[in-house]
Amino acid sequence: MQLNQYIDHTLLKATATKADIIQLCSEAKQHQFFSVCVNSCYVGLAKAELQDSTIKVCSVIGFPLGAMSTSAKVEETKQALNDGADEIDMVLNIGLLKSNDFDAVLKDIQAVKSQMPNNVLKVILETCYLNEDDITKASTLAIKAGADFIKTSTGFGTDGATIKDVKLMKNAIGNGTTKIKASGGIRDTKTALKYINIGVQRIGTSNGIAIVTGSNSVKNNY
Question: What's the whole-model pTM score?
Answer without folding.
Answer: 0.96
